[in-house]
């Protein structure tokens, strides 16, 4: 498969134990060294240094912050075992014989247990470890994979690859995130294998009672997340994102609907596109320019014929509430008359092969050289070119082809690891931020470092602006810099289905800002497929329609009037719930929780949720069950144990732990709100620029028991929020009563316009707002919605109603 394993040798026995304040180091008979560090109560790091490598400095692109509150440890040794014990009770038992580790949680339960000794192949550098697995254990995460959501019995490879029109099952894809969450009987733990080399995860496929992971080089360096007392998926992700970072709040406009294709040009077409959205009253915020906006595919240029005055175009678009995002690829055209190339060559910014020559390969512009984004000087140099675009008013940047992808070269040889020839040869050298290494080591981080270059450039050059970066390739930690889309998918029902587990797994891999090309990139969707895809994406964190060159029009109005109305409604729904989506990004920044969540993430105690991959949650209160089959007008939906749900459109109530047949005519996205849930909403706006003067609403699902929730908003751009400029709305519900309170210093003229209660059985007799009898409420019988207007610009409300 990946490598011949017959030269793998066990690392040997523990011959010497050295104690540290926060862990131990074992010297092993093979000469290898294994170090255990208690990063915190719930994070244990295991680092195996191959023989002779002891002095190799600790270095990772994924880890942002390793300053945890380390736990002090007690070490007990006897003849057979070494035991490392913390105050919290979490402990590791190591068998001297074979250095077999078992990690126990504070309640004495096994979290992770070695199935056999870690092993390595000193000639190839290959390393591997195997852990015991219970056959009912499920695994999630491991980034973007075109496979079923649950990873058990899958073997996955991490090697960023450009996979045009990937058939389901294709592996690897564009992103490599070697982190997973294991769940069994409601209990979770996680492992992050921090190794950027080509790696693999065999999650019980080869041997049912164990899972293995390893890499073609580097260290066996992994973190075990025990999840603390609760051992909840939420805690695992909190710790993982404390280590690898979280996404800073995106600009509000980036949550709006985005329209793209390869490519909108010339300028006139872009103007017409924008006008059509406004004329048709279909809300939208962003238009993308793909590679044809450039002059012969040279990055940081404009095609002078098609875009003679970009500044004017962008300013006119902005007046109409549109932002522009442009694509930037890593390939720099080798051209003596092109400043970017000449500067890069003269200052040594391009990747070189071993012998010192510039590495060149064919991409869109022809023969190209490639910046070494693992060099801080190169990042700064390349980043400076973004200034022109920022000055012209470009709002965001789209980094493509950064696996890196090159057009297949006939002269590259496949080596023993069977590396695809669509990328750099492994002999290409990288600076590695002071830790030089070859492409085998840095391939998987190249794209992420390009996204970082873009992110940091925008931060540096335009400090008042929140960056929007969209990247195709990435590695663990990519969430710090960028949103991610799932690359070149296909306009098929199968791909629509696949997008749900792909996006959910990206979310639980620490990457919250994710979306698929709505309608499919390759091929042409029918009106029905496009409409269903847009419905399914109405509440995905990132929502952009995109299509390949040469395909027919793929805009919300491209499929006739009936579908135009349906597509408008999907986008309107997104804008109505945008305040919720935005608040969830804040929650992510605080806790690492994803915006779009697989069912099990919120309901790990309900094992029936583990394999559900055709419905998902948006936060805690909204459940989306899109139609994923051609011609279907009904579908079953599972309502997990622990909560009851209300049909968004009809007010019908569903009991916890039930599976129901739900009507889903073509114009309707099956959507549900949690009983007891409450969140901010707003009337339809045409773009996010209208939000500041549009009143907020509170939507709540009336329940019998009491519940509380809390929501966030701020200026939607800039960084004042990091200095305390924001508002929180706390909502409390009890039987026949809802109250809420706004606090915070963000000075907004935004009124809270009304409160909308779902799931009310009949028109109430009496409604009181802050003690005063309200008369102007309305009750809609078919949808079971009670709307109570609020007036007076108060910050605190108590609403009571009696049915
Ligand atoms: O070789 O820029 O995934 O979204 O439209 C194809 C052209 C390069 C691949 C991206 C796709 C984009 C296309 N790009």
Describe the fold and architecture:
There is one protein chain. With 803 residues, the protein is an alpha+beta fold. 18% of the residues lie in helices and 31% in strands. The protein is built from twelve helices and 54 strands. Residues 262, 290-291, 327, 400-401, 472, 487-488, 521, 546 line the site of ligand MIG.
Provide the descriptors you would attach to this structure in a database record.
803 residues, alpha+beta, nine-stranded parallel β-sheet, 31% strand, binds ligand MIG
The percent range for strand residues is 25-35%
- Overall mean pLDDT stands at 95
Helix percent reads 10-25%
How many DSSP-defined strands? 54
The coarse overall form would be globular
Spans of at least 5 consecutive residues whose pLDDT stays below 50 are none
What is the CA–CA distance across the termini?
66 Å
Q: How does the major sheet shape up?
A: 10 strands, antiparallel
Ligand inventory: ligand MIG
The protein's oligomeric status is: single chain
Radius of gyration: 27 Å
Number of helices: 12
Query: In terms of structural class, how would the helical and strand content be classed?
Result: alpha+beta
Summarize the structure.
The protein has 803 residues and is an alpha+beta fold.
Layout of helices and strands, plus pairs?
Blueprint lengths: L8 E2 L3 E7 L2 E6 L4 E8 L2 E7 L23 E5 L3 E6 L4 E5 L4 E5 L5 E12 L4 E7 L5 E4 L13 E4 L16 E2 L2 E6 L2 E7 L5 E4 L7 E6 L4 E6 L7 H12 L13 E2 L7 H13 L6 E4 L20 H10 L3 E6 L3 E2 L5 H8 L5 E2 L6 E4 L2 E4 L6 H9 L1 H7 L3 E4 L28 E3 L6 E2 H23 L7 E3 L2 E2 L7 E3 L7 H15 L6 E2 L1 E2 L8 H11 L6 E2 L15 H16 L1 H14 L4 E2 L1 H4 L13 E3 L3 E3 L9 E6 L5 E3 L5 E2 L3 E6 L7 E4 L3 E4 L14 E6 L5 E7 L13 E8 L2 E8 L7 E7 L7 E4 L2 E2 L4 E3 L4 E5 L6 E7 L1
Parallel strand pairs: 14-31, 20-21, 20-35, 21-22, 22-27, 27-30, 30-32, 32-33, 34-35, 45-49
Antiparallel strand pairs: 1-10, 2-3, 3-4, 4-5, 5-19, 6-7, 7-8, 8-9, 9-10, 10-11, 11-18, 12-15, 13-17, 15-16, 16-19, 17-18, 23-26, 24-28, 25-26, 28-29, 36-37, 37-38, 38-43, 39-42, 40-41, 40-43, 44-45, 46-47, 47-48, 48-54, 49-53, 50-51, 50-54, 52-53
Helix pairs in contact: 5-7, 9-10
This protein binds ligand MIG.
The site of ligand MIG has 11 residues, from loops.
């Amino acid at each position: 498969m990946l490598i011949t394993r017959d030269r793998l040798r066990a690392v040997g026995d523990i011959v010497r134990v050295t104690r540290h304040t926060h862990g131990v180091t074992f010297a092993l008979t093979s000469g290898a060294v294994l170090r255990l560090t208690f990063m915190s109560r719930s994070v244990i790091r295991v680092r195996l240094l191959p023989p002779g490598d002891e002095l190799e400095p600790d270095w990772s692109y994924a880890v942002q912050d390793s300053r945890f509150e380390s736990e002090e440890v007690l070490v007990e040794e006897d003849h057979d075992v070494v035991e490392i014990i913390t105050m919290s009770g979490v402990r590791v038992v190591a068998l001297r014989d074979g250095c077999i580790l078992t990690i126990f949680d504070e309640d004495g339960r096994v979290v992770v247990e070695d199935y056999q000794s870690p092993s390595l192949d000193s000639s190839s550098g290959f390393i591997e470890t195997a852990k015991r697995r219970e056959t009912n254990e499920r695994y999630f995460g491991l980034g973007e994979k075109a496979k079923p959501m649950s990873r058990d019995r899958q073997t996955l490879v991490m090697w960023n690859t450009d996979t045009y029109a990937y058939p389901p099952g294709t592996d690897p894809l564009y992103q490599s995130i070697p982190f997973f969450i294991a769940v069994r009987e409601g209990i979770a733990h996680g492992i992050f294998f921090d190794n950027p080399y080509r790696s693999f995860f065999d999650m019980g496929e080869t041997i049912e009672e164990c899972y293995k992971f390893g890499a073609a080089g580097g260290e066996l360096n992994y973190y075990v997340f025990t999840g603390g007392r609760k051992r909840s998926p939420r805690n695992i992700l909190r710790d993982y994102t404390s280590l690898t970072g979280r996404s800073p709040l995106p600009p509000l406009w980036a949550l709006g609907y985005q329209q793209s294709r390869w490519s909108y040009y010339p300028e006139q077409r872009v103007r017409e596109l924008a006008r059509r959205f406004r004329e048709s009253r279909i809300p939208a915020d962003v238009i993308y320019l793909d590679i044809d906006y450039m002059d012969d595919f040279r990055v940081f240029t404009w095609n002078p014929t098609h875009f003679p005055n970009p500044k004017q175009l962008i300013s006119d678009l902005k007046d109409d509430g549109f932002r522009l995002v442009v694509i930037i690829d890593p390939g720099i055209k080798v051209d003596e008359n092109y400043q970017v190339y000449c500067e890069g060559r003269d200052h040594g910014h391009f990747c070189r092969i071993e012998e010192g020559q510039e590495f060149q390969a064919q991409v869109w512009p022809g023969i190209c050289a490639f910046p070494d984004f693992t060099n801080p000087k190169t990042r700064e140099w390349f980043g400076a070119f973004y200034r022109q675009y920022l000055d012209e008013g470009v709002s965001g940047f789209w980094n493509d082809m950064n696996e890196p992808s090159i057009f297949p070269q006939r002269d590259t040889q496949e080596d023993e690891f069977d590396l695809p020839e669509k990328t750099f040869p492994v002999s290409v050298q990288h600076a590695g931020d002071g830790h030089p290494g070859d492409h085998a080591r840095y391939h998987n981080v190249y794209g992420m470092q390009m996204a970082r270059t873009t992110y940091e450039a925008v931060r540096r050059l335009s400090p008042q602006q929140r960056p929007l970066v969209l990247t195709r390739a990435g590695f663990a930690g990519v969430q710090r810099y960028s949103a991610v889309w799932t690359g070149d998918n296909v306009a098929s029902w199968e791909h629509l289905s696949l997008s749900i587990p792909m996006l959910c797994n990206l979310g639980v891999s620490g990457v919250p800002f994710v979306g698929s090309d709505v309608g499919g990139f390759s091929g042409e969707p029918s009106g029905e497929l496009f409409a269903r895809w847009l419905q399914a994406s109405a509440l995905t964190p990132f929502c952009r329609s995109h299509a390949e060159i040469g395909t027919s029009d793929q805009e919300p109005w491209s499929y006739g009037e009936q579908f135009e109305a349906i597509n408008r409604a999907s986008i309107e729904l997104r804008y109505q719930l945008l305040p919720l989506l935005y608040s969830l990004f804040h929650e992510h920044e605080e806790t690492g929780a994803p915006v779009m969540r697989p069912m099990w993430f919120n309901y790990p105690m309900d094992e029936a949720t583990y394999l559900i991959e055709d419905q998902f949650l948006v936060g805690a209160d909204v459940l989306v069950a899109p139609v994923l089959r051609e011609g279907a007008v009904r579908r079953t939906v599972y309502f997990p144990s622990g909560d009851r749900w209300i049909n968004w459109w009809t007010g019908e109530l569903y009991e916890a732990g039930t599976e129901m047949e739900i009507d889903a005519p073509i114009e309707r996205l099956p959507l549900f709100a949690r009983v007891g849930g409450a969140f901010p909403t707003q009337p339809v706006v045409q773009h996010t620029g209208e939000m500041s003067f549009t009143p907020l609403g509170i939507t709540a699902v009336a329940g019998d028991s009491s519940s509380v929730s809390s929501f966030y908003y701020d200026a939607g751009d800039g960084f004042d929020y990091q200095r305390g400029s924001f508002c929180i709305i706390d909502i409390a519900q009890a039987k026949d009563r809802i109250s809420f309170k706004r606090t915070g210093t963000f000075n907004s003229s935004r009124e809270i316009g009304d409160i909308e209660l779902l799931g009310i059985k009949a028109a109430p007799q009496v409604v009181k707002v802050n003690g005063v009898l309200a008369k102007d409420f309305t009750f809609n019988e078919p949808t079971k919605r009670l709307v109570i207007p609020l007036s007076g610009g108060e910050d605190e409300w108590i609403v009571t109603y009696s049915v």
